[in-house]
Amino acid sequence: AHNTVEKTSVTLLGLGAMGTALARAWLSAGHPLTVWNRTPARAAALTAEGARVADSAAEAVAANPLIVVCLLDDASVEEVLAGTDLTGRDLVNLTTGTPAQARARAEWARERGARYLDGGIMAVPPMIGVPEAGGYVFYSGSPELFERHQETLVVPIGTTYVGEDAGFAALHDVALLSAMYGMFAGAAHAFALIRKEDIDPAALAPLLADWLVTMAPAVHQTADQLRSGDYTKGVLSNLAMQVAGTPTFLSTAEQQGVNPELLSPYFELMRRRLAEGSGEEGLTGVIDLLVH
Ligand code: FVH
Questions:
Q1: CA of 139 to the centre of ligand 1 (A)
Q2: Is the dihedral of CA 196, 201, 205, 207 positive or negative?
Q3: 37 lines ligand 1 (CB under 6 A)
Q4: Pick from 46, 151, 232, 234: CA 20 to 30 A from residue 139's CA?
Q5: CA–CA separation, 80 vs 285, rounded Å?
Q6: What's the confidence (pLDDT) of residue 222?
Q7: Out of 2.60.40.420, 1.10.1040.10, 1.10.20.10, 3.75.10.10, which CATH number does the structure's domain 172-290 have?
Q8: Per the database record, which ranges form the NADPH-dependent reductive aminase-like C-terminal domain (predicted)?
Q9: Ligand 1 site, residue 20, Cβ cutoff 6 A
């Protein structure tokens, strides 16, 4: 049977690595697509795949009610949209930025008569159009806009709406990526410890990956403790015991000729929390030391 449902037309501004991947996903799903890019050659490459190329950002914005921007940074969004008429448009901004930039951009769009959704992409370009890769985009801002376009937005990659505050998508994006860097930092220290030994890094890697996966659910206990305010709830390895173990980590690093600078700041926070008399807690109290 022929699919007679009309697909939503999309305007996409920005055809870098991510924008191009998004464009291809919408085109191959049959969505009429108008594109514009500062460097025209990148847009021209998509005409063979069915994209309509606008001569200017203003022309692209005039072409469709749904406008998606995927540019380098907030400054480039300002520059590209400056000469366009956003009245009545649904603006979806997939450009990475801070929560404050997203909130200001939402207000900026509202003043220009547009509805606004901000997006934080939790994926790299090869994950676009590949649902089994597990990537998704955090969205926040206008709930009506999200509901209206969810079917179109989900075509390239999964969607997770995190609230009406336009800054929340960026906040979730940065929170998850910050945790990722913490994980990478720990793994870097682990590889450094074995660097000069007769241990194959490829043998350590699966052990590390499995261990990190085993430990990851600890975040649920952290959340539970933060919600209840009881940081001793369910604690198996208390802070006093963990702080007592830190010299072993520092001595091992020294013996292996490894600079402990990635671990030491965390150990210092653990020591400070213990000094406040929180020996029966786990590690959740460290969070309160971080928040000004
Ligand atoms: N690629 C990735 O792995 C990450 C994954 C997570 C999300 N990020 C963010 O997505 C935004 C776009 O990233 P991208 O990978 O497409 O970035 P580039 O390939 O560098 O393309 C940048 C596009 O922005 C255009 N552009 C830059 N400055 C301006 C400007 N002043 N005026 C107009 N356009 C501008 C650029 O145009 P051109 O260089 O081709 O002319 C590209 O279209 C980004 O926020 C990531 O943080 C990606």
A1: 18
A2: negative
A3: yes
A4: 46
A5: 45
A6: 98
A7: 1.10.1040.10
A8: 165-290
A9: no
